[in-house]
Design goal:
Chain A is an all-alpha fold and 182 residues long. In chain A, 72% of the residues lie in helices and 0% in strands. At the A-B interface, helix 7, helix 8 and helix 9 of A face helix 7, helix 8 and helix 9 of B. Chain A binds a DNA duplex (30 and 30 nucleotides) through helix 3.
DNA sequence: TCGCCAAGTCAACGAGTGTTTATGTGACAT
DNA sequence: ATGTCACATAAACACTCGTTGACTTGGCGA
C-alpha cells in the first residue's frame, strides 16, 4: 500500500465529482459555476475541462453515478419495507434524488434523467406485485415517485415540520401513500 | 371604448409578466435571461428594468401574482372535491405551482415561497377536518402537497404516462392519497 | 397644429461565465 | 542525483449576463 500521493489524478477527479454533486443538487445546474465547484473541491478550475471535458460532461458524470447507485438499490418486500427504504434514502443520500430533478439543458443528460425516473416508477409498480399492464397502476406508481421527489424538494427547501421530521414519521406517511396507491 | 393604444405601459407590463411566468416556470430563474423574456414578450429588454426595477423584481412580481391566485382558491369539500380541484389545477395552470418551486436566490422571494407552501399545507390539513395540532397530521398534509408538486414536476418533465394522463385518472390517484393521509 | 412628456429604442458598460493555452512543479524511474 | 512527464496552476480568451444612460418617437392636450 502506497502513501496517498500529493498529486493524484483519480483522487482529484473524485473530489470534483463529490463537490459537483453537492452543488448541482443544492443549487441546480445553471446556478452553479465551475469556479464554485472547483473552489469547493479545493482544486483548479481548469481541471474540470481536463477530466470531464466540459461542465456538461461533469454533470453527466454525476448523473451516471447517481443512476448506478439507484440501480443497485433493491425494491423488494412489503409496503412497510418499501416505505422504510424510501425514508432512509431521504436522510442518507438526499442529493441523489435531487440530482434527478435538476435540468441541465443538455439533451443526452435529459434523456438519462427521464429514463431513470421512468425505470424507478416501473420497478415500484412491479415490486408492488400489482398488474403492471393496468395503465392506472402505472400512473399510481408514478404518483408514489412524485411523492418521494416532492418530499425531497420540500425538505431541502426547509419546510417545517417536514424537514425536521424523523425517519419513523416519514416511514409512516410513506407507508400510507404506498398502500393506498399500489 | 378606446382603440388599443400602440404604446400602453400597462399592457406591455402585462406582456412581460406573462412571458416571465412562462419562462421562469419552464426553465427556472437562473436559466432564464432577461433577453429571453423580452424577446418572448416582443418588447425591449430595457423595459424590464424600467417597469420592475430588476430581474429579481420581475420574479417577485410573478410570485406575487401566483400567491394571490392561490389565496383565492378555496380548499373545501370532501376528499373527492379536493382531488378534483387539484387535478384541475394541474391541467389549467401548472405554471402557478411550478413557480413556487423555482428558487431565485433572493432572500425575500424565498421567504414568500416557503410561507406560501406552508400556508397551503396548513389549509389542506384544516380542510381535511382532522386535528391540526397532531404533528403527524402536519407532516401528512405536507406529504399531500409534496405529491401535488412532484406530479407537476414529472408532468412538466414529460414522464409518460403521467404527463398525458387525463383529469379523471389524476383525480382518482389524488383521492387515494388524500384519503390515506388526511 | 404644435409642443411636451411618457413610452420605447439603442448601444454600451462592467462583471461573471465556460474554456483554452502557456507555464510551472512535484514525484517517480533511471 | 537528475531528467522526465503527468499533474497542476495562472492568465487570458471570447462570450453572455443584468443594468444603465442618452437618444428617438409616438400620441394626447392646448
Amino acid at each position: 500500500m502506497t502513501t496517498p500521493r500529493r498529486r493524484d489524478a483519480a483522487a482529484t477527479r473524485q473530489l470534483l465529482l463529490d463537490a459537483a454533486r453537492r452543488r448541482f443538487a443544492a443549487d441546480g445546474y445553471t446556478a452553479t459555476s465551475v469556479r464554485d465547484i472547483a473552489a469547493e473541491a479545493g482544486v483548479n478550475v481548469a481541471l474540470i475541462s481536463r477530466y470531464f471535458e466540459s461542465k456538461e460532461g461533469l454533470f453527466r458524470a454525476c448523473l451516471r453515478g447517481t443512476v448506478d447507485e439507484l440501480k443497485q438499490t433493491a425494491f423488494e418486500g412489503g409496503p412497510r419495507e418499501l416505505a422504510a427504504r424510501m425514508a432512509g434514502a431521504h436522510s442518507k443520500a438526499p442529493n441523489q434524488l435531487l440530482l434527478l430533478l435538476r435540468s441541465s439543458g443538455d439533451e443526452a443528460a435529459e434523456r438519462i434523467r427521464l429514463d431513470t425516473l421512468a425505470s424507478i416508477a416501473a420497478r415500484l409498480a412491479t415490486a408492488a406485485g400489482t398488474n403492471p399492464e393496468n395503465p392506472q397502476i402505472s400512473v399510481n406508481a408514478q404518483f408514489v415517485l412524485a411523492t418521494a421527489l416532492g418530499v425531497v424538494i420540500l425538505r431541502s427547501a426547509g419546510l417545517e415540520p417536514l424537514s425536521t421530521a424523523d425517519q419513523d414519521q416519514l416511514t409512516a406517511s410513506f407507508e400510507k401513500v404506498i398502500t393506498a396507491l399500489l
